[in-house]
Amino acid sequence: MSLLKDYPRDKEIGIRCHFGLASYYERFGSEQELLGAYETIKKIYRDDQRVLSIPFFIYRYYQRINNLAEARKVLEQATAEYEAAFKAHANDAQLSMLIARSLFFVYAETKSWNRLIGFLEQLRKKYPNDPSFPFSIASVYRNELKQPHEARRIYQEMLERYAAHDTLVTLIKKQIDSLPQ
Fold it and tell me: What one-character-per-residue DSSP string does 115-158 give?
């Protein structure tokens, strides 16, 4: 990797080269080389937000080679790491929201619906003016848990909370109208 030698202090070039190397190993190398490349990235660039995506790349790799047990293990480990990171970075709004997206993905991918709802409830309390969290909660109740009555309850709460937002109220009412009785 000539670029790494030519620009040893350029973080952007470095992380891109390392991710490129990991991509190469995924296609042409061994599992050991791939995992080693990702460990190197995590070690050298641990403060870079792109490191958060590494478990997903590894998960996707194991899915592609049909090693579903290992893929599940990767997500379980990622969940624990993301939960700890989310708590550790609770005061950094930008980073905590990046971690939150990662947690959202792993909870949904593992079909951990109750954990996802609990997590979204935390976010809803922390960011009460953001309607995306109650919408997501209602969506999980409606589409995944098949509990339209709970989705309706969330939508009704949203109608009260966001009554001054005409466009949002219209959207919420359409969601309520589309629920089974």
Answer: HHHHHHHHHHHHSTT-THHHHHHHHIIIIIS--HHHHHHHHHHH
